Structures are given as C-alpha cells and as structure tokens.
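Try this one yourself first.
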C-alpha cells in the first residue's frame, strides 16, 4: 500500500537566496470536490531547493464511505477497504510535508482537502506555505492553451502515463515544476507563495455510503444541504474601515480559512449578517486570507471597490456587530 523510493541529484545553477529550501509536490485523489469529501489516495514527491527529486511516497486511503467517481480515479470500494485510514498515515504524510512548501496544480484545492483530513484526525498539517503551478505558469507567461496539468506537462515534454492516479500526477507535476522553477530562478521571478492556515475548528456532517452502483453516482443527491434562513435585516451598505460591522451587511468569503468555513459562516449569520455566495455591487465586505489569489471573488471585489479584510480582522469585527437600525 505504501511506496517509498529515494533518489538524489543536484543542480549547479545560481539561485535566488530568498527561494524556499525544499518542496513537497503533492497530488490527492478524492471522493469529490465538496467540503465533506475525503481523500482516497495521496502522493508526495520531495524536491530539494533546486527542484531535484529526493524521494517519493504513495498511499491509498480508506475514506470510510463511497469512493465517488470511480470512472475518473479507478479506485473501487473493494480496493480501498483494506487501505489505511487517514489517521493511520497522517504521521508519515506529515514527515513528507514538514518544513517544505506544498506544491500542487490548483494548490488551494489540495491544501483544503489535506487540512480537512488533518482536522478530522485532530491534528495539524505541518504546512505553512503553498505554491500553485497554475499561478507559477502565469507568472512565467508560459504559452499554454489552458491551465490543465496535461498542457503544462506537454509544454515541458513530460509524458503522462496514468492521469488521475495520484502517484503519476505527482511525478508529472514534479517533472514540470523543476524546469518552471529553474526558469523563475533564471529571471529572478518572485514565486507566488501563499500562506497555509491549518483548520483550527471542524465539524463533520454525517455522509451515508452510496448504495447505488458507481455508474449512477450523483454528487448532489446525498450531500447535506446548507440552506440558511434569509437575513431579517436590510443591507446598510458597505463596511467602512475603522467602524464596526452592522447587522444586515452582506459578507462573502474566498479561499481557505483557519476556522472551518461553515463554522465561520454560521457565526456571521448568528451575528445578524447576510452570508453571500457571490460578489456584487451590494456586497459589504469580502473576507479572504489571499487578497492576491486572483479568484473570481477577489477580482470582482477589486472591480466593484468592495472592502477586503483577512480572517483575523473579521474575527475581531464579529465580536462587536452593531444592531440594525430600527424602522
């Protein structure tokens, strides 16, 4: 179930002093894309400061539920039944990540899945920064037709053997990341590093195992709904720096948070705020820990002039929300 291989190499190229000292190129396969979905396989390629492979590791993970879209990842319930639980591999996974920048293709997704699994296991992932290879390819202005992994691989002549297999996807990404990193170093490009905030609070919703055949898997047919009652207060307008929040303000969230998102949103609702799922000209405030991430919400907030604060500042604002105006 577990695989470990060690290799070593070095590169004599001159290197920016500010660059990280090591990387963990990660890929996880999951039962789906939602907050309640689980990791079913994980792979890590450890790279040194210059992108050379040090070793790699791979494991299956028993999600304790239906594996989801088997036709994509190929992992059936029978295959996963004998696999270790995440809590059983958490320590080894930590050893692979410790002290390194997590590198992934669409890194915010991999990081959120990993952070949730650690939170369920009542542990904390030893990751402080992540680097998304999509963001890096944009920084390098690579002439890619799209931002799929297969396009990045083709650009650098990397042959993909088993798409959506965590170990092969991680290998492909590691091989494509090395020349990307070297190109960035040669041009002294500032790497698009983002802070990773491990989840400090988590509540899991029970998710029943899927009894239907894999061919009839429908992600939306069995996940618990999160429909909240309408906010009873009128929108008083935008948040102003230095002033308190006011009941009825429309609050939107973007990116990963150290408090699990549903809990944070619940607290906002309890305080009398309106949690919005999108950004418009009526949005009072956007909460994000990655104001430079380039997500659609961040871009729209910039276009509309919507105020932006990070999670810590929002937590302080939540402690003193002004009552709605009467009448």
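Now uncover the answer:
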């Amino acid at each position: 179930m577990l695989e470990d291989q060690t290799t070593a190499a070095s590169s004599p190229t001159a290197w920016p002093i500010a660059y990280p000292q090591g990387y963990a190129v990660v890929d996880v396969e999951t039962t789906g894309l939602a907050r309640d979905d689980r990791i079913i396989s994980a792979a890590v390629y450890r790279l040194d400061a210059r992108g050379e492979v040090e070793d790699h590791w791979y494991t299956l993970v028993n999600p304790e539920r239906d594996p989801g879209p088997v036709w994509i990842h190929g992992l059936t319930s029978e295959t996963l039944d004998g696999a270790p639980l995440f809590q059983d591999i958490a320590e080894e996974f930590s050893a692979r990540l410790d002290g390194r920048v997590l590198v992934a293709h669409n890194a915010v997704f991999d990081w959120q899945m990993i952070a949730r699994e650690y939170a369920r296991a009542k542990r904390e992932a030893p990751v402080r920064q992540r680097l998304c290879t999509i963001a890096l390819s944009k920084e390098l202005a690579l002439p890619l037709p799209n931002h799929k992994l297969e396009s990045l691989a083709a650009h650098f002549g990397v042959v993909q053997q088993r798409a959506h297999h965590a170990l092969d996807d991680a290998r492909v990404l590691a091989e494509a990341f090395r020349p990307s990193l070297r190109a960035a170093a040669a041009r002294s490009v500032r790497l698009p590093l983002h802070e990773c905030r491990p989840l400090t609070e988590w509540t899991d919703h029970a998710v029943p195992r899927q009894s239907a055949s894999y061919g009839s898997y429908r992600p939306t047919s069995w996940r618990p709904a999160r429909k909240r009652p309408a906010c009873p207060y009128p929108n008083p307008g935008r948040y102003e720096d230095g002033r308190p929040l006011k009941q009825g303000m429309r609050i939107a969230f973007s990116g990963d948070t150290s408090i699990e998102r549903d809990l944070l949103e619940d607290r906002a609702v309890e305080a009398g705020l309106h949690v919005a799922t999108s950004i418009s000209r009526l949005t009072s405030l956007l909460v994000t820990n990655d104001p430079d991430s380039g997500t659609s919400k961040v871009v729209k907030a910039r276009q509309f002039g919507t105020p932006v604060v990070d999670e810590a500042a929002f937590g302080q604002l939540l402690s003193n929300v002004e009552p709605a105006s009467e009448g």
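Discussion: Confidence is low (pLDDT under 50) at residues 6-12, 208-225. The CA atoms of residues 68 and 217 lie 7 Å apart.
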